[in-house]
C-alpha cells in the first residue's frame, strides 16, 4: 500500500459499560447488543452538524477498531469452519482498522447521541456519522455471499426451570445474555468459542470464570441447564 497524506481524526467516542471484546456481538443486535452514548468533541460546531439528525431513526457510524492490532489476509469467521479472505468478512483485523455499523438512535441531547443495540466497545473512536436511508441503503436484491452457502439457522436458547428463576440476579442475567449471543451462531466447539464437550449431548461453555452447562436438544435448539459461579463447583 502507498502512503498518502490523508489524516482521519475522531469526532467523538462511544461510551458504554462494556470494555471486553468477547462480550460484544459480531454485528449490531437489537436484543443482545450494547447500549451507549456517542459523545462528540466540543469546539468544532458539531452542535450545528447534528441539526435535523433527530428526524432519522437509524444512523451509519464509521469508527475505529481501537483494540484490533495488525491485520490478517485470511480469517476464520464465527460461522463455518473455513478461512475466508478478510475483505469477504466483517473481521476487525483489517489493513485499515475501520468499521461501519447501522445503529438505532434513542435520543440526541447536546453533543450526546444515545444509541442502542451496538457492536461497539467502550472508548471506540467515531470518525463520522451519516443518516441511514432505507430506499438507498437497503438493497433487496443483495445476497449474503458465502454465508448463503452455510444454510445457517440461528440456535434457539432455552433455560432450565431453575435458571429461569435466577434472572433477577443482574450478574447472572448478563452472563446468560452473553451465552445466548455466543450460542446463537452455533452450539458446537469452535476456535472463537470456549466450548468443551463433556459427554453425549452435554457441553460446557466458559465465559470469564463462569461455566455454563447446556444440552443440545436438536440442531436448532439448546437448553442451558446450570451455571457455576466463579470459585464454585459444578
In short:
By secondary structure, the chain is mostly beta strands. It is built from four helices and 13 strands.
Kindly provide the name of the CATH class of the largest domain: Mainly Beta
End-to-end distance, in Å?
Answer: 52 Å
* Named CATH topology of the largest domain: Elongation Factor Tu (Ef-tu), domain 3
Helix and strand run: EEHEEEEEEHEHHEEEE
How would you characterize the overall build of this protein?
By secondary structure, this protein is mainly β. The chain has two domains: 12-145, Beta Barrel (Elongation Factor Tu (Ef-tu), domain 3), CATH 2.40.30; 156-228, RelE-like (YaeB-like fold, 2-Layer Sandwich). Helix content is 12%, strand content 35%. It has a six-stranded antiparallel barrel.
Task: Supply the key terms.
single chain; Elongation Factor Tu (Ef-tu), domain 3; 2 domains; five-stranded mixed beta sheet; 4 helices; 234 residues; six-stranded antiparallel barrel; globular; 12% helix; YaeB-like fold; mainly beta
Amino acid at each position: 500500500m502507498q502512503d498518502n497524506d490523508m489524516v482521519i481524526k475522531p469526532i467523538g467516542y462511544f461510551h458504554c459499560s462494556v470494555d471486553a471484546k468477547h462480550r460484544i456481538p459480531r454485528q449490531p443486535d437489537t436484543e443482545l447488543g450494547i447500549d451507549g452514548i456517542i459523545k462528540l468533541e466540543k469546539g468544532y460546531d458539531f452542535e450545528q452538524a447534528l441539526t435535523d439528525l433527530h428526524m432519522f431513526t437509524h444512523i451509519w457510524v464509521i469508527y475505529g477498531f481501537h483494540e484490533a492490532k495488525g491485520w490478517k489476509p485470511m480469517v476464520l469467521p464465527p460461522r463455518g469452519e473455513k478461512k475466508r479472505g478478510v475483505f469477504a468478512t466483517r473481521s476487525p483485523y483489517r489493513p485499515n482498522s475501520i468499521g461501519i455499523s447501522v445503529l438505532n438512535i434513542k435520543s440526541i441531547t447536546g453533543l450526546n447521541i444515545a444509541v442502542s443495540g451496538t457492536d461497539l466497545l467502550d472508548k471506540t473512536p467515531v470518525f463520522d456519522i451519516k443518516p441511514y436511508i432505507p430506499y438507498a441503503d437497503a438493497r433487496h436484491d443483495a445476497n449474503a455471499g458465502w454465508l448463503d452457502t452455510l444454510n445457517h439457522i440461528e440456535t434457539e436458547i432455552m433455560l432450565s426451570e431453575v435458571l429461569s428463576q435466577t434472572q433477577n440476579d443482574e450478574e447472572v442475567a448478563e452472563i446468560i445474555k452473553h451465552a445466548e449471543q455466543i450460542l446463537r451462531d452455533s452450539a458446537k466447539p469452535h476456535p472463537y468459542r470456549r466450548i468443551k464437550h463433556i459427554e453425549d449431548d452435554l457441553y460446557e461453555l466458559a465465559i470469564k470464570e463462569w461455566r455454563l452447562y447446556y444440552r443440545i436438544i436438536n440442531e436448532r435448539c439448546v437448553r442451558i441447564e446450570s451455571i457455576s459461579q466463579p470459585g464454585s463447583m459444578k
